[in-house]
Structures are given as structure tokens and as C-alpha cells.
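retry 2 of 3: previous attempt timed out while embedding pyridoxal-5'-phosphate. Reduced batch size to 1 and resubmitted. Inputs unchanged:
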Amino acid sequence: MTKTRVAARLRALPPYLFARIDELKQEQIKKGVDVIDLGIGDPDLPTPPHIVAALQEAAARGEHHRYPSYAGMLALRRAAADFCRARFGIELDPSSEVLALIGSKEGIAHLPVALVDPGDVVLCPDPGYPVYATGTRFMGGEVYPMPLRRERGFLPDLGAIPADVAARAKLLWINYPNNPTAALAPRGFYEELIAFARKHDIIVASDLAYSEMYFDDEPPPSILEIPGAREVAIEFHSLSKTYNMTGWRVGFAAGNRELVGALGKVKTNVDSGVFEAVQAAAIAALSGDQACVEEMRRVYRERREVLCGGLAAAGFDVLTPRASFYCLIANPPGFTSLEYAGKLLEEAGVVATPATGFGNGGEGFVRLTLCADKARLEEAVRRLRGLGKT
Ligand code: PLP
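retry 2 succeeded.
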């Protein structure tokens, strides 16, 4: 008798929805089509030079070549706390309320190891970053999707969560600025959420990966600015998009010390921290001149005008982002998201992501990113123009 090699938790993962788009993309490339890939949320801009220089300098120093501390260098946790004070006006104790992460994804995936027991309910936005649900399922938790609807500004309706689900829920994920909808949450929503969480004794995990990528409004708040949040919330920060550092793998968690400590305990058992030279670069990023972040916003603002302005003028139902670099387009009637993404690829050579890749709640939309230069985005608009009224 042969044993099944792969664990049930892996076999139970939903099929990889992007595989079909990848296949179609490869077909187009084989045919010689100059494919414009607006499917991936990965900045094409380089990491600012002062951050690269900090890595180079630190990498040459032998003291950084050894195992790092699990929680991150105190200097990095201080820099993170200082950044949060300057940006959000919040006070964090670097030694107990801040934890370095190997990218925020690592912390997001590991949080359920610290908090979720088999059968616990975890409330996850739908559509949402898939790691919230996957991390939950890996721990035997039960995912309860919170639909994000356009007519509600893509905010979950907390009042629609049944009382018995709220009673069993252990953890709730939110993410504003949001991937994939680009929605922002007003302060009032966070207040409502904290009251809900305290009433039902639910931990709130807020994913703030896109906090600095905003274009028009006031900067998005941190949940930790809200009175009472420190009792129930943990927040995930990332340097990836703010400083074009996706490949470097560094972020941090901040918030309730028991939650930060529990996540830290998981990490001491599964990893050995972030390379100290990368931590030195992260310190340079967080405590250095933030002009590079303003420049990043300027570039995406310009690109947004090219792509979203161009598509809206061509008759597309396009949701122009006020934050993040994601731009949703509503499917025309008669198309599923997957079919519509296929059509854009086959007829215009433009890769879009079906928003159903982020959950069934994404049906009705495809997602484009602003991760290509203006000339490529202009070319994408030129090719897509004819499809705007279909
Ligand atoms: N959260 C959201 C909503 C994301 O879209 C991403 C990456 O795309 C992450 C977290 C993870 O970012 P990182 O692990 O690079 O910090």
C-alpha cells in the first residue's frame, strides 16, 4: 500500500486560479505577442540608492554575518516605532510591541499558528489577500468570508455577521488600503470594528502593507490610532511597496503585546530572523529621508492618470484607485472574471488578474496594476481601447 505523500492540508487547497491565465499568457508569448503584464503587484521601480548603500555597507561587516536575534535588532524595532510615531502619532514600546518579520506575508501566514485552534472561526475579507484564508485552513480553522461589495465601498458589513459566527470567531482580518479593490477605510469604520471586536472578544489583524501608497486623500490611518485598539489588535507593516523592496523580505508587526509576543514565539520555533544587513537597510529606509516615498506616489499618480483615465475615456467601468496600485475593471455583462481576463489577453495581449483569484467575492472584476512605465501603460490603453464598449 502506498501512502499519500502530500498532507491533506495541501491537497485541500483550492485550485490555483491564476494557472489558466499563466497558460494563456505563455500561449500568447509563443505566438510572438508582446504581452503587457499588468497582473503582478510588484514594483518595477528600483529600491532607493541610500537603502541599497546601507545594505552594502552592513553586508561587509562581519558582525552582521551571524544569526540575527529572533525579534529583530532593537535598533530596527526602534526605527519602526519612531516611524509609527511620526506617521500615525502612536507610541509603541520597541521591545514588546514591535516584531521584525521576513516580509509581512511571513507574519500574516504565521499569525494563525499562534492564535487559531482547530474549529476556530476566522473572518476573512472576500475578495482578500489569499494568505489570510490559507493560513487559517493550515491550522484547521474555519474561514468565514466577509463579502466586500462595491456598493458598500468594499467595507465588510459587520452587522451582517450572524451572532453565532461572531461568538465562535477568534480572529478577523482587514486590509486597507485594500488589495485587490484599492478601497480605503475611514476612521469611523475602524471605530466600529474595534467596538465589534471588543463586544465579541475577537482579535483584529490589520494588514497595512499599502499604508504609504495613497494619492489624493489624507494618509490612511493605523488601527492602533483608535482608542481601545491596543487591547485587541495587531497590525502588519511592510517595507516592500513603500520603498520598492519586495525582494528584500522585511516588514514588522506592531500592536497588542500579548499578540506580538505570541507571534514572536512561533517565529523562534520556525525561523531565525532577518539578515542583519537587510535590517540595517530597513533602518535606513524607515528613519531616512522620506522624499523617495513622495516620489513613488508621484510616479503612480501619473501612471494612474494614464491607465485609469485612458480606460475610463474608452468606456470601461474602471475604479480609479485612491490608494494602492490596483485598478479594478468591472466585467461587461455575460463574462465571468476569468473569461474577461482571457479576452483581454487574447485580444489585446494585456494580462489582467481575475479578481476571483482573491475569493468568490471578486466575481465581476478583473484587476490591473500600475507596475509598468507610462509608455507601456499608454500602449495597454491603446490596445484595450477597442474593447471598452463590449
Ligand atoms: N498584504 C497584502 C494585501 C499584499 O498584497 C501583500 C503582497 O502583495 C502582502 C501583504 C505581503 O507583502 P510582503 O510580504 O512583501 O511584506
